[in-house]
Design brief:
About 45% of the residues lie in helices and about 10% in strands. It is mostly helical. The longest helix has 22 residues, at about 20-40. The two termini are about 25 Å apart.
Length: about 200
């Protein structure tokens, strides 16, 4: 049985980028529904003892959709931290690889937001690492996750409307730009460096 992930910050800690109201709906209602649905669908599937990542890589249909959304949201919600003007600029292996491939961190951010803004319909924009450490930006529709292609997810922005509509209405690009203010680069560095 899967359970709703606990947030590593208070419900109002990400405001004004993500309001407490949006977090309550997005985490407490949408993600909870995916957890409940997956737990209802798993019995008799042959996937009951699998990890979330294994289910996403092996399942299809409703089980894939709900497991994918849980995995995606777990990675999404745990990559943020409250805004602070005193945080140092991000450094480390991940930033070095970003600068190697995109030239600057700002150029990467621009490319990432553009991919999120131009994804048609609902889905996710991802930064993932291929074996060997090369970085890839991908657009994944619906519940898609790059783990299904052997990539290691590092960063994701949710472009389903429920992630931003209360705070930004139809201004998806403004929402994606604002998210950089709460990204926890230490978490991303840990994901990039993990085996």
């Amino acid at each position: 049985m899967f359970t709703l992930i606990q947030l590593p910050y208070a419900s109002d800690a990400l405001a004004p980028v993500i309001s407490a109201d949006t977090l309550a709906f997005h985490h407490g209602k949408h993600l909870q529904a995916y957890v409940d649905n997956l737990n209802r669908l798993l019995p008799g599937s042959g996937l009951e003892e699998k990890s979330l990542e294994e289910i996403v890589c092996e399942a299809e249909g409703a089980i894939f959709n709900n497991a994918g959304q849980i995995l995606n949201h777990n990675l999404y919600f745990t990559q943020f931290r409250p805004m602070s003007p005193s945080l140092p600029a991000p450094t480390g292996n991940l930033v070095a690889q970003i600068e190697k491939q995109w030239g600057t961190l700002e150029a990467f951010k621009s490319d990432f937001v553009a991919k999120g803004t131009t994804l048609f319909g609902s889905g996710w924009v991802w930064l993932s690492a291929a074996p060997g450490g090369t970085l890839v930006i991908s657009q994944e529709p619906n519940a898609g996750n790059p783990v299904t292609r052997g990539l290691k997810p590092i960063l994701t922005f949710d472009v389903w409307e429920h992630a931003y509509y209360l705070d930004y209405q139809n201004r998806r690009a403004a929402h994606l730009e604002a998210l950089w203010g709460i990204v926890d680069w230490k978490v991303l560095e840990e994901r990039y460096n993990s085996k």
